[in-house]
Specification:
Elements lengths: L23 H17 L1 H10 L25 E7 L17 H9 L1 E3 L2 E2 L4 H10 L28 H7 L3 E7 L18 E5 L10 E5 L2 E4 L2 E2 L2 E2 L9 H15 L6 E6 L23 H26 L6 E7 L23 H4 L3 E4 L8 E3 L3 E2 L3 H8 L16 H6 L7 E7 L22 E6 L2 E5 L13 E2 L2 E2 L15 E5 L15 H15 L38 H19 L14
Parallel strand pairs: 1-10, 1-11, 2-13, 3-14, 4-5, 4-10
Antiparallel strand pairs: 2-12, 5-8, 6-7, 8-9, 11-12, 15-16, 16-17, 17-20, 18-19
Length: 598
């Protein structure tokens, strides 16, 4: 049984990766060469010698200092950590009462992204990270992918791990997928990852790894590659379990070969669960949801510390780029805080889409800085492919930009706008109309766009309160303390200067109708490039009861694509004879509707 807490001990590396394949005499000679090299040339020249040695070379023992040049490879190791539902305020360097010493230190030594945007909910952010495309260009404009839906990230999109594999990267995913799984082709291992260990759904119990989507629709949701990981059904807290798997991956990988690690932690998404010892520092927090959330975040912070330690211990750190991001804003009713931003998870107010994010790497040119240039989650796709020395096909229309020079050197961002989204099937604003959009855009449609300093919202943007820290009473966010906004009658358009007014307190739509029209035209232009929304109805075949008690692929190819059996062939012959008789009699054969495909 693994120890309690979020930081399991570093696993010992496999013996074959640590012992030189020779006799003791050879080992002694190697040790002598090591000492001589250190005295004569120093660490750098010894590292150059290691580059020429074969794969069985010695690695540092756990706890030893890593060799600075052990990973002398022009392709950096790429480590992307995605937290779930972490609020904008919920990090120490944004003034939170929650202690996050690891995140604070990594961010302070790296580059803090303080004009960084994601999507307001899980699936959209993850899809845009892995494809470099806006939701309107993948058909995932509306909501999330539900467990019972025959839907997944479209198979015709080249994913980030697929592009990295093309240039020699080993690709591993640990954590939450949430990009669909109804077909085997939708699984992470079929979308570019060499290995996958984690959950397929959007949420679940942190200890049992079970999820109920509705009464009678419950199942186990923990996978090892393409199979249910029943061996891990032993009550280990997911943050700890995922961290241990990351340690194991690093311990068994050759640091001279590039690796892409996508670590998508379940924390701090509901249900609010954490090991008991993490509550000790937060007894003063009255609100139970906030206290549990704080404990979960402290556990996550400790996990990030242990991932960083593993990178150093096993010789990856000096040639690594660590990117940390939340997938959307926090949910106040589940303990999260976005103060002083407006709104929450699931909305297009800043509190739903402006995220905690930073880059930490020895490879950064300007360390210890703050980047206030515009950066979006779609930008990681071209940025990481470029860093990996990969190629992006010219015919692929990406929405992301390569922002490495912006982050590392402080140059201006190539990005001047962000389409936050256009959702044509979200609940329409009652007071919206084409007339309200100057004949350019139907303002009943939920949409949001950022162009330079300006941000425009139309339709129903979602929960619009500001929720200050003192609003967390014992029963949850107390409406008494909230700053509530009653939307004016007929209101379906909002305009803000986000640079001057990041908290969205002063609506300028009536003062600058010309700017409104310009942004409405930009929305209209984007909408012309949109693909149809993919949001199919529930499929009863998805019930885990029909799949061995596990959430997993349920879709089967239609029988007509398979070779017909003898009995089916005979039935087909009889049907053909019947059809011929009907045609001879002047009757038309009945039309059979095709089976709907997801």
């Amino acid at each position: 049984m693994a120890p309690r807490g979020c930081a399991g001990p570093l696993p010992p590396p496999p013996s074959q990766a640590w012992v030189w394949p020779g006799k003791m005499l050879a080992m002694g000679a190697l040790a002598g060469f090591w000492v001589l090299s250190l005295l004569t040339y120093g660490y750098l020249s010894w590292g150059q010698g290691l580059e020429q040695e074969e794969e069985g070379a010695l690695r540092p023992q756990a706890g030893e200092s890593p060799e600075p040049s052990i990973t002398a490879n022009s392709q950096p190791h790429l480590i992307f950590v995605l937290a779930d539902d972490q609020g904008f305020r919920d990090v120490g360097y944004h003034g939170s009462e929650i202690k996050t010493p690891t995140l604070d230190k990594l961010a302070a030594e790296g580059v803090k992204l303080e004009n960084y945007y994601v999507q307001p909910i899980c699936t959209p952010s993850r899809s845009q990270l892995i494809t470099g495309k806006y939701q309107i260009h993948t058909g995932l404009q509306h909501s999330i992918i539900r467990p019972t839906q025959p839907n997944c990230l479209p198979l015709d999109n080249a994913t980030l791990p697929q592009k990295l594999k093309e240039v020699g990267y080993s690709t591993h995913m640990v954590g939450k997928w949430h990009l669909g799984f109804y077909r085997k082709e939708c699984m992470p291992t079929k979308r570019g990852f060499d290995t996958f260990f984690g959950s397929l759904l959007g949420s679940g119990d942190y200890y049992t790894h079970y999820k109920c989507d509705s009464p009678g629709m419950c199942g186990y949701d923990l996978y090892e590659n393409d199979d249910a990981a029943w061996d891990y059904d032993n009550g280990v807290y997911s943050t700890q379990m995922y961290t241990q798997r990351v340690q194991q991956i690093l311990a068994s990988h050759d640091p001279r070969k590039p690796i892409f690690l996508y670590i998508a932690y379940q924390a701090v998404h509901s249900p609010l669960q954490a090991p008991g010892r993490y509550f000790e520092h937060y007894r003063s927090i009255i609100n139970i949801n906030r206290r549990r959330y704080a404990a979960m975040l402290s556990c996550l912070d400790e996990a990030i510390n242990n991932v960083t330690l593993a990178l150093k211990t096993y010789g990856f750190y000096n040639n690594s780029i660590i990117i940390y991001s939340s997938d959307n804003g926090g949910q106040p009713t589940a303990g999260g805080s976005n103060w002083p931003l407006r709104g929450s998870k699931g909305t297009y107010w800043e509190g739903g889409i402006r995220a905690v994010g930073f880059v930490h790497s020895p490879l950064l040119k300007n360390k210890g800085t703050v980047c206030k240039e515009l950066v979006h989650i779609t930008d990681w796709y071209p940025t990481l492919i470029s860093l990996a020395e990969g190629q992006i096909d010219e015919d692929i229309q990406l929405d992301g930009y390569d922002v490495w020079e912006t982050i590392s050197e402080g140059l201006r961002s190539p990005r001047v706008d962000i389409l936050h989204n256009i959702d044509p099937i979200y609940t329409k604003a009652k007071n919206g109309s084409l007339a309200a959009g100057y004949g350019i855009w139907n303002t009943a449609i939920q949409s949001a766009i950022r162009v330079q300093h300006w941000k425009l919202l139309t339709g129903n943007p979602g929960y619009s309160d500001w929720v200050p820290p003192q609003s967390f009473s014992n029963l949850g966010p107390n409406r008494w303390h909230n700053e509530r906004i009653t939307l004016s009658t007929g209101k379906s358009v909002w305009l803000f200067n986000i640079t001057a007014d990041p908290y969205e307190r002063v609506d300028l739509s009536n003062r600058y109708p010309g700017v409104v029209k310009q942004l409405l035209r930009r929305l209209s232009q984007f909408n012309k490039t949109a693909v149809p929304v993919r949001y199919p109805p529930k499929d009863p075949r998805s019930n885990p009861r029909l799949n061995g008690g596990v959430w997993g692929p349920w879709y089967k190819e239609e029988n007509k694509k398979q070779k017909p059996s003898k009995n089916k062939a005979k039935k087909k012959q009889k049907k053909n004879k019947t059809k011929k008789k009907q045609q001879k009699a002047g009757a038309f054969p009945k039309c059979h509707s095709g089976v709907t495909r997801g």
